[in-house]
Amino acid sequence: MKILVTGGAGFIGSNFISHVLGLSQDYAVVNFDKLTYAGNLANLDSIANHPRYTFIKGDICNPAAVEPAMAGCQAVVHFAAESHVDRSIYEPAPAMETNVTGTFVLLQVARKLHIKKLVHISSDEVYGDLPPGAFADENSPLRPSSPYSASKASSDLIVGSYVRTFDFPAVITRASNNYGPFQFPEKFLPLLISNALDDKPLPIYGDGKQERNWLHVTDHCRGILAVLERGRIGEVYNIGGQDVVENLSMARRLLRATGKTESLISYVQDRPGHDRRYALTCEKMERELGWKPAISLEEGLRQTIEWYRANTKWMAAVRGGEYLAYYQKHYANRDRSRHAIKESGGGFPS
Ligand code: NAD
Ligand code: TYD
After folding, report:
1. What range defines the domain where residue 183 resides?
2. Which of 5, 64, 137, 239 could cross-link with 223 by S-S, CB 3.0 to 4.6 Å?
């Protein structure tokens, strides 16, 4: 089966492509990616010359570019997105453009080309934040809080409308917060790990009591492949990790694992509209597809820290130009603790 993977140069997409090509002879992959700031072909160095892999640079919002890339494919796995909540708060337009319009364009082309199955990769953030102790299932209401999560919820609704109206063969997955190798360090875990390894402050928004449901990216990739192969058309599947952890407790855990002290914790101004808790129940994935997360948080964090320790060149490259500018804009005036990121200069990657 030849599959079109959109956003395959990003964090999860690149892990998915390596996972699929490494696991099975059955797939050929076309990776279609615009290479935004988050797209990085270095994530795919190990399979760049694989005989069943092709890369095409292009924008999912442009049907004239999407159509030839999709031609000859039987399935689509759609990762491409503007994926960062904070950036969507500064500048919502790219999230609306790519996540909403881009998904619409992809669906139009996929319909025209009679694609057999499209897996739309969505997020637990579409459910909004949950009360303490609660878990969202696939029927929970959509209550997105940020421009990012609203754009993802919008794309989910558009996909649902194509299933219902046009009998279009789509499936939606909603995953919790991923972590693992090749994650861009604007996100919480790679940011904290890389700052801890460099003895730089770990910025914690607000009181740090927000909870996230951590999922190792390899477990996510296994779940997506199960949905691609056996997921029922028109269904939504939650794919979440085993552990729901407070941000502050995660920061302390990472500091212990990297051998650093808690004095690196730096409380900074909170994110506007910050969701307090995400947590998924994934019984449907287990019941229907036999999937459940296999990598414990302890083992996953250990491996991930080792990966960032061993891949300093990758990290140095992604922390260059654009990232530095974003980091300065985002954190320079945010600090409200004794560890003044601004004054120490210590928050800025060198
Ligand atoms: P990422 O930001 O690391 O990668 C996104 C990729 O999409 C990049 O390679 C980028 O170049 C590409 N892209 C962006 N706009 C594009 C466009 N217009 N046309 C073509 N390519 C474009 O994102 P990620 O963390 O790998 O997330 C992948 C998907 O998974 C997203 O849809 C995201 O909403 C979803 N998701 C992510 C998480 C998470 O924890 N990271 C959790 C749940 C769901
Ligand atoms: P993030 O990785 O941006 O994912 P999301 O907002 O999609 O869940 O953030 C994860 C959590 O970490 C979230 O509660 C925000 C928090 N956070 C911080 O406390 N400090 C930071 O510097 C960042 C980037 C995130």
Report:
1. 179-212+244-271+297-339
2. 239
